[in-house]
């Protein structure tokens, strides 16, 4: 009687772990290749479990609701899986802070580093240091321009596809052409670079991008940028639409538009993220579409981290499956949005 009881306990525990790992997870597609080139962190020490894991997450900041949800997903997943230690820090959107945090993690000898890089360039040195210390790095959320041999995998969104989806919305919203403004994210960030590129790739030739300025992904910084746009260009006459790289900046922009007497629907506005704030802006008639970007990456990150600790191959790229939300669904979906 004893043996079956032990094995059913193991089965239940394994089931629980896999349920927890998939709970709240962003749906993903994977790109297997070159997985065998990962640094083998846990070569001959037996199979590691979540209880053995120390994971370093040098978060880039707390600039948006997307970011808050991403932080919560990492912290909640770490707690529910019962990992040994999560080394979490907030770099306040400064790359040098992220680099110092990574160096401290290397010093401490963490098992895995999961890095959401604030910008794309400038990671080669610190990624080389991690590689030399045999600590695998998962690049999360935004891309890096460093050589792919310096990190194990990328988990996150296809930012160019998000920009292309926004372009498709403007093509539908402005069938006879026109001009749009772009309120872009942090300069040099994978998210802003990809979205800008995607927009330009797919926007109809009769829709002109009149101007593009950064609001650094924050509400506060988007307000003066929109105000400056409104001083230079007349809404409805000089431009008919605005592409905004995230919902937080969209909310800041709405504040400036309202103050200038612009009414919901006067302009075609497309944003990115699909946060509660974005859904509210659709309910209120300000956004005509919100391109989804899913921040709930915790489960995938820890699952991959465990594989890396055990020297198992991983997919080089895990892209989140995403959609576009519209005002007619917003009212119904808003109450169940978790971020
Ligand atoms: O869209 C924005 C956040 O990198 C995908 O960063 C992320 C972006 C997200 O500040 O809200």
Instruction: Estimate percent helicity.
Output: 40-55%
What structural category arises from helix and sheet content?
alpha/beta
Cα end-to-end separation:
47 Å
Gyration radius, rounded: 22 Å
H/E element order: HEEHEHEHEEHEHEHEHEHEHEEH
Number of helices: 11
Q: Approximately how much beta-strand content do the residues carry?
A: 15-25%
Number of DSSP strand runs: 13
Q: So what's the overall shape? A: elongated
Protein model, in words:
The chain has 339 residues and is of the alpha/beta class. It is built from eleven helices and 13 strands. The strands form two sheets. Strands 1-12-6-5-4-2-3 form a seven-stranded mixed beta sheet, sandwiched between helices. The radius of gyration is 22 Å and the shape is elongated. The model is unreliable at 1-23 and 34-43 (pLDDT under 50). It binds beta-D-fucofuranose (GYE). Beta-D-fucofuranose is lined by residues 63-64, 66-67, 141-142, 157, 191, 217, 246, 248, 272-273, 293.
List keywords for this structure.
single chain; 339 residues; alpha/beta; Rossmann fold; 2 domains; seven-stranded mixed β-sheet; six-stranded mixed β-sheet; 11 helices; 13 strands; 42% helix; elongated; disordered N terminus; binds beta-D-fucofuranose
In short:
Helices cover 42% and strands 19% of the residues.
SSE diagram, text form:
Layout: H1 2-22, E1 28-31, E2 54-59, H2 65-81, E3 85-90, H3 95-108, E4 112-115, H4 124-132, E5 137-141, E6 153-156, H5 159-173, E7 178-184, H6 190-202, E8 207-214, H7 219-232, E9 241-244, H8 247-259, E10 268-273, H9 276-283, E11 289-292, H10 298-309, E12 317-320, E13 324-325, H11 327-333
Parallel strand pairs: 2-3, 2-4, 4-5, 5-6, 6-12, 7-8, 7-9, 9-10, 10-11
Antiparallel strand pairs: 1-12, 11-13
Helix pairs in contact: 2-10, 5-6, 7-8, 9-11
This protein binds beta-D-fucofuranose.
